[in-house]
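Our consortium's second objective concerns turning raw sequence data into structural hypotheses that experimental partners can test. To show how far this objective has progressed, the report includes one record in full. It was chosen at random from the queue rather than selected for favorable results. The single chain below, 266 residues long, was entered without modification.
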Amino acid sequence: MTTSDIQEIVEGMEELRSWRLNNVYDEVRQWGARPIEFNSDPRGTQLYSIEEMKRSFCRRFVDLADSASRLLEEDRVIGAAILARAQIETVGMAAFFVHEVSRMTRKVDLEAFEGRVAQFLGGPADGGGVAKRVHVMDAMRHLDKLDHSYVEYLWSKYPVTKAFFNALDEVKSSGLEIQDLVSRISAMKNYDTLSEFVHPNALGTFFIFGQPEDRGPAEEGVRELLKRMTGAATWQGHHMITALNGSEGWSDECFRQFGSYFSQST
């Protein structure tokens, strides 16, 4: 595979990713605007709050994406990177929320179900006080598993893509950074890359906020990398869309599992 072959593939991937990025953004925005409807009376249950929480993740994601985009228009790449990193955390927490509510529903233990939901919603715990919050890194570990499975799926479905990345590592003269490309596919690689700049270390400080008169190609390259990573964070919303679409019909499942308990509390 020659350098020109690689460049042609990269350009094609970028065009496709840009289209998919806008598509993901629209899907998330539309999910956040969905009306909350039930086939059974949700009074006396946590079901309305659960549905509201799902839409809250969507609205937060869109707000972060919009804010990051405005910062990029002003070339404020670190602020945009911080928001992009928060976008990926929102994706992780949304997917983890869907997973945990589904898991606790299948256990058919109403007390455990409501206790776990309260940890996401910040509701009261048994015995008073507020339930212990779900830590964002628990959500990111869950996203890491989803992300790994997704990348493996891409490798198996599109073997030419895997061969392409392997070739990149061999063709050093291409002048392309393989980590940059991988980060635009993998949510966790993207998250790790953004984290390097979000923290006030050398990359996030010296290479961005050094003396303006000393800025050269290397510093400009870092800024361009951050712009690409910020856009990739919006694309990672596909994990959230998959999770939310898989949660449709939850309320009916909850009524099947907990219906007798719900009727006693109304």
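The partners drew two points from this record. The chain is about 75% helix and 0% strand. The two ends are 67 Å apart (CA to CA). Both points have been shared with the crystallography group to help prioritize constructs.
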